[in-house]
Design goal:
Elements: E1 2-3, H1 11-21, E2 28-29, H2 41-69, E3 73-77, H3 84-92, E4 96-101, H4 113-117, E5 122-125, H5 130-138, E6 143-145, H6 162-168, E7 170-175, H7 180-192, E8 198-201, H8 225-233, E9 235-240, H9 258-264, E10 269-272, H10 275-278, E11 288-290, H11 293-304, H12 307-324, H13 327-340
Parallel strand pairs: 1-2, 1-3, 3-4, 4-5, 5-6, 7-8, 7-9, 9-10, 10-11
Helix pairs in contact: 1-13, 2-3, 9-12
């Protein structure tokens, strides 16, 4: 039984589909069927008032599904609204309880999560510093590092048609949520290269100040699934910018889902240089790295002037992730852990 969202390319749905490909009897339940996320201010207010009732209904539904299906293994992807009491009841019904946790901090996604995380039989965290943070913050020791992955049915090279290029074509793209650190990097980039064809996709870029030089380059919309993969395929250079350190985390991000999605979709990955990244890729062979804004500008100039180099590095990056980092690989790891425990 997999707890996942229902939109294409979502981590939970990718995990669910990979479990299906193993031949395992696999079922899903979605938080969004019970706890909708509304965008407009009036509906957000209504949602906040109704949320305790919706959380209660979701947890009852999760327990009913467990009673009906009697799953051997339950996998929550983050599981912000799963309650500790529900997990204890599911364990009594015979389910082994696993969590795949994709974010930087365990402390900033609501009041239920810190209590629930203590109840899982194992937590797979996508951050190398995650097991240490779990132990220091919550006293949880049953965890291990398991990186993000790509969905082979979604993240693959997409046709670079004239129509696709009209919407997605650019020299450099960044696809991801706004943060102050990312804003600072991109603003300095565009100040130094004002003629650069840059596109920014993702949530919360509406937070940009009205005088930010990035406003002409931001689409002010998130992009998912096939559109996301197409945007990667249509970008000459895809930036891997990382989130900063937040409350409850001992570090900022080192790698993200984009680290794998970009090369899987045939994109050239230009990523902030980290130790975790270079344990997966070889710099200037299967990815390109930068450490500061000077190096970022230098690498962009170099890559835009060398189309064959871009293609060669992108192709090698795709080979690396195809060999070791699909969701089929991750599900095998999870099932091997389950079989051994």
């Amino acid at each position: 039984l997999v707890l996942c969202a229902n939109w294409l390319g979502n981590t939970g749905l990718s995990a669910f589909r990979a479990f299906l490909r193993t031949g395992a009897w696999t079922y899903s339940i979605s938080t969004s069927d019970y706890i909708p996320i509304w965008r407009s201010l009036p509906m957000r207010i209504v949602g906040k008032l109704l949320r305790p009732f919706a959380v209660r209904e979701f947890n009852r539904a999760l327990l009913r599904e467990t009673e009906l299906l009697k799953p051997h293994l339950f996998l929550a992807v983050k599981g912000s609204y799963v309650q500790a009491d529900t997990l204890r009841a599911m364990r009594q019904l015979g389910a082994k309880l696993y969590c795949f946790y994709p974010d930087v901090s365990f402390m900033v996604h609501g009041r239920y999560l810190p209590h629930a995380l203590k109840e899982y039989d194992w937590i797979f965290t996508t951050k190398s510093f995650g097991p240490k943070d779990l132990k220091n913050r919550l006293g949880v020791e049953k965890s291990s590092f398991l990186p993000h992955a790509f969905d082979p049915e979604v993240h693959q090279p997409r046709p670079v048609t004239a129509e696709a290029l009209e919407t997605f074509g650019c020299d450099v793209s960044f696809i991801g949520g706004h943060s102050p650190g990312k804003q600072k990097v991109l603003e300095e980039l565009i100040r130094r290269r004002p003629d650069l064809k840059l596109k920014i996709w993702g949530d919360r870029w509406q937070n940009l100040p009205k005088d930010s030089p990035l406003r002409p380059y931001a689409t002010f919309q998130a992009i998912f699934g096939i559109g996301y993969a197409t945007a990667i395929s249509c970008s000459k250079i895809n930036l891997g910018l990382l989130s900063e350190k937040v409350f409850g985390a001992s570090s900022g991000d080192k790698i993200t889902s984009r680290t794998f999605h970009i090369p899987a979709s045939g994109g050239l990955l230009l990523h902030q240089r980290t130790k975790d990244l270079l344990e997966i890729f070889v710099e200037d062979e299967s990815c390109v790295c930068f450490g500061d804004i000077d190096e970022l500008v230098e690498k962009i100039d170099w890559l835009l002037a060398n189309e064959e180099m871009r293609k060669t590095i992108a192709a090698r990056g795709r080979e690396v992730v195809n060999e070791f980092h699909s969701w089929d690989h991750r599900v095998r790891t999870i099932l091997e852990h389950y079989a051994g425990h």
